[in-house]
Amino acid sequence: MKPIIFCDFDGTITETDNIVSLMTQFVPEDSEKIAKAMMEQTISFKEGVSAMFELLLANQKEAIIDYLLDTVIIRDGFGDFVSFAQEKKIPFYIVSSGVDFFIDPLLESYGPFSGIYCNRADFSERQIKLVFPNICDEECSNFNTQGCGCCKPSVMRKVTQNDYFKIVIGDSLSDFEAAKQADLVLARDHLITRCKELDLPYKPFETFYDCLEVVKKLIEVEQGIPL
Predict the structure, then answer these.
(1) In the predicted model, is pLDDT for residue 225 greater than 70?
(2) pTM, full prediction
(3) β-bridge pairing 115-122 and 129-131
């Protein structure tokens, strides 16, 4: 089996969740109620994220990008982890429920990646509208409601073949379903709790140096994953 990596962005590659950060900065009171409903799963992730971004005006685009570029901290070791994957020719996909207009500039210096799957922003109207190009496929448990937004399991099925060992790296709500499809989860924060509850194979991490050590060991051990 060959390794393939699916990595979340907000709260995983970055030390904080960028959507939460920008909502707290620009529309804290209105967005807090939406965020609570999302965590309690009384509304879908797609509904919640859409509602949050509709609180923002399209003419705030540059201010939002500038704010995130000034405040975002990339998790320690990410650059070395990406370089290792590139050196070993391990497919590396970014799969995020975040939005292209801030993900692309923040990742620009680290690529190329095998692919970046995320939501898209439309600034043609007064408020920011989100576009969801990576919706649920027929195998997704949310297919009838299309509630995922960026459906990570559907992306994984789209790009993965049977001989791949699937490594999912993530931290929170949007990674729960992807973790169920993984052969190994590298988890932090809320995702650790869910992996324990579902008895999923996982390793905890705080930095991408932790992730790097896990992947190296998988490759090096006698029964590991050949490249």
Answers:
(1) no
(2) 0.90
(3) antiparallel
> For tokens 């991490």, what's the residue?
205
Q: How many whole angstroms separate alpha carbon 19 and alpha carbon 79? A: 22
CA separation, residue 196 to residues 40, 69, 116, 190, 192 (Å): 19, 34, 28, 10, 6
- Element (H or E) spanning 167, and its range? strand 164-170
The structure tokens listed for 70 are 């000034």
Element containing residue 191 per DSSP (H, E): helix 190-198
Q: CB neighbours of 164 closer than 8 A, spacing ≥ 6? A: 1, 2, 3, 4, 91
* Residue 102 burial by Cβ neighbours in a 10 Å radius (0-12, 13-18, 19+): buried
pLDDT, tens digit (0-9, with 9 covering 90-100), for 142-178: 655 556 778 999 999 999 988 899 999 999 878 989 9
How many CB atoms lie under 10 A from the CB of residue 95? Answer: 28
